[in-house]
Amino acid sequence: MYTRGMPFFIFQLQKMNKADLRKKYKNLRLELSEEEIEQLSLEIANRLLQLPIWEQEFYHLFLSIAEQKEIDTENVLHILQGKDKNVVLSKTNIQENKLDHFLLTDSSVIRKNRWNIPEPEGGIPIAPQQLDVVFVPLLAFDEHGHRIGYGKGFYDNFLSECKADVIKIGLSFFEAEPEFKEVFSSDIPLDYCVTPNKIYSFKY
User: Fold this and answer.
1) How many domains in the chain?
2) What range defines the domain where residue 62 resides?
3) 155 among annotated binding-site residues
4) 5 known ligand binder
5) Is the residue at 4 inside a domain?
């Protein structure tokens, strides 16, 4: 509850729950122009090159939902392909509330699902335990490495299936919130988050 003498911006920060933060960052993304998204996405991809992650073998990448004004990961894909890495994509499995994972190859067929997520139709299956690096989509994150996604739980379930030392990297147009009010035991924190201006490291 707000009390007299408490700075209003602190009161606002304390009130922000996950639903509020989702709304805030969805609106912030909707304000970005296509040109801004293109430039900011390129800056994020270039900053990724500074991370000590490029000696790994299997890299899981999400393909962007253009309608949601997500980060364009095409630049990241080009980096991975240029380094001759194994790129793994996911397909949403609604029946089992999980993601299935497939190796990206020259013969892969990518189509948008009902939520406009570009996905492989199938292909060579890859187990989560095989993955070395996972690039994680998000709406917001905090200075402790906790992330807020769309609230469906697909990525939390997926990351819980990966090996303990998998490198989890969030990508964000915006900087970190100080701290989230709601953090649950099932929330898996990031190791890094990369923005156009900064690399956040949560590896202690």
Assistant:
1) 1
2) 12-201
3) yes
4) no
5) no
Q: State the CATH number of the domain containing residue 68.
A: 3.40.50.10420
150 appears as a binding residue in the annotation: yes
Among 124, 122, 120, residue whose Cα is nearest residue 112? 120
| Residue 22 counted as an annotated binding residue | yes
Per-residue pLDDT of the chain (204 residues; tens, 9 = 90+): 334 444 444 434 455 788 999 999 999 999 999 999 999 999 999 999 999 999 999 999 999 999 999 999 999 999 999 999 999 999 999 888 899 999 999 999 999 998 899 999 999 999 999 999 999 999 999 999 999 998 778 999 999 999 999 999 999 999 999 999 877 777 899 999 999 999 999 976
**CA-to-CA distance for 107 and 15, rounded, in angstroms?**
49
Instruction: Write the DSSP symbol of residue 175.
Output: P
Query: Is 19 marked as a binding-site residue?
Result: yes
> What 3-state DSSP class applies to 89?
strand
21 domain-assigned: yes
Is position 35 annotated in a ligand binding site? no
The token pair at 124 is 């060579």
18 appears as a binding residue in the annotation: yes
To the question of whether residue 53 is assigned a binding role by annotation, the answer is: no
Predicted confidence at residue 111, as pLDDT, reads 95
Q: Is residue 6 part of a domain?
A: no
Whether 5 is in a domain gets the answer no
Any known ligand binding at 21? yes
Question: What radius of gyration, in Å, describes the C-alpha atoms of the chain?
Answer: 17
Q: Which residue has the tokens 């991809």?
A: 45
Helices and strands (DSSP H and E) totals, the chain:
5, 11
Q: What is the pLDDT of residue 1?
A: 37
4 is in an annotated binding site: no
